[in-house]
Design a protein that fits this description.
Nuclear Transport Factor 2, Chain: A; 3 helices; about 130 residues; globular; six-stranded mixed β-sheet; alpha+beta
Length: about 130
């Protein structure tokens, strides 16, 4: 494994910690200004930190108890494939997810492609439609 893959895996660990502990730090410290975050199943794409911040604020308003546990990481060049368990609310059963994170030269996420079911069985409102 090369230095790039090692760096990106460390960045993924930071992404996991901020997702669990301080979502706005996650947006600011893990994502590039011009990032593109795509919910692949719902075919929704959020562009830039501003749009990402809006959806994260909505998600936290819905349920701020969310937690993530990464179960597997596979680095390849500028991208890390991740399997994870997400826990929401009082539900002790994890929601399985897969995410592909692509990093730029500075170690910031420029592309986030997430594959997973909605933990509540409902889709969040697109903040651009508010």
């Amino acid at each position: 494994m090369g230095e790039l893959e090692k760096r990106n895996m460390e960045r993924v660990k930071h992404w996991e910690w901020t997702w669990n502990n301080d979502v706005m730090r996650m947006v600011d410290e893990c994502y590039a200004e011009d990032c593109e975050v795509t919910d692949m199943f719902r075919e929704r794409t959020f562009r830039g930190r501003g749009e990402l911040r809006l959806i994260e604020e909505q998600m936290m308003a819905l349920d701020a108890s969310r937690r993530m546990e990464i179960t597997k990481m596979v680095p390849c060049g500028d991208t890390v494939a991740i399997e994870m368990d997400a826990y929401w609310g009082a539900n002790p059963h994890p929601v399985k997810n897969c995410v592909f994170l692509t990093f730029n030269e500075e170690g910031l996420i420029v592309a986030d492609h997430s594959y997973g079911n909605d933990p509540n069985g409902v889709a969040e409102q697109d903040p651009r439609q508010s």
